[in-house]
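Anyone up for a design puzzle?
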């Protein structure tokens, strides 16, 4: 399990690189909306990285992502990896297996494989353990805290205007 300091160190090495941040999730389903919420907050802050909110259909964005040809791809999603709600963990593509479950139809591993088969890109899946993903629920307090921490870290790593 990566602590917030470890997470920052893992992502900090991406500073100054051509990075695309992808938010996956459904904002109508509580904590599942973490990815899109993070993209929205980063967009408002003017973060110095490209942003794409793919909602619940990441497969519709595979070709636009390939066309952007980022050096690094950070995918943010609510992922059930059986930790305490609000826990943030970074996964490399080879770690994505049956013990890591996204709340979406297309598995994160297949999404990543479809991109990496076309372009050379370093991929980081940042998973946030959800507490509640029911339709009409709000984001839980622990996931709200995780969102805030991750947004602040990404703004520091990719400062606005850079």
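Challenge accepted. My sequence:
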């Amino acid at each position: 399990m990566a602590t917030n300091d470890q997470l920052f160190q893992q992502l900090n090495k991406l500073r100054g690189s051509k990075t695309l941040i992808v938010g996956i999730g459904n904002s109508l389903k509580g904590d599942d909306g973490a990815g899109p919420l993070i993209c929205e907050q980063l967009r408002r802050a003017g973060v110095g990285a490209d942003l794409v909110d793919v909602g619940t259909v990441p497969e519709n964005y595979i070709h636009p992502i390939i066309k952007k040809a980022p050096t690094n791809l950070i995918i943010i999603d609510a992922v059930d990896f059986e930790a305490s709600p609000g826990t943030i963990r970074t996964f490399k593509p080879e770690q994505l297996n049956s013990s890591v479950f996204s709340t979406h139809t297309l598995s994160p591993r297949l999404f990543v494989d479809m991109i990496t088969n076309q372009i050379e890109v370093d991929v980081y899946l940042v998973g946030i353990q959800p507490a509640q993903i029911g339709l009409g629920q709000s984001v839980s307090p622990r996931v709200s805290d995780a969102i805030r921490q991750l947004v602040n870290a990404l703004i520091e790593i990719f400062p606005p205007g850079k």
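A detail worth pointing out: DSSP finds five helices and six strands in the chain.
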